[in-house]
Write a structure and sequence with these properties.
42% strand, three-stranded antiparallel beta sheet
Amino acid sequence: MSNRGKKLDTFEPDYVVFDLETTGISPSNDKIVEISAVKVKNHKVIDEFSTLVNPECHISEGQVL
């Protein structure tokens, strides 16, 4: 990535924001309980995703979005 670590002076028109809800703030002790995402294109929300997660179940990379 050529722009890695560089300041952005404008808002990108297309992006995805995701949020993880957890049982606490410790990555070694607490669990993910919900995953949500919002997809924005041309500065408008075009899609949303949210799902509850069983904290006792492993989440593989292929299962998310």
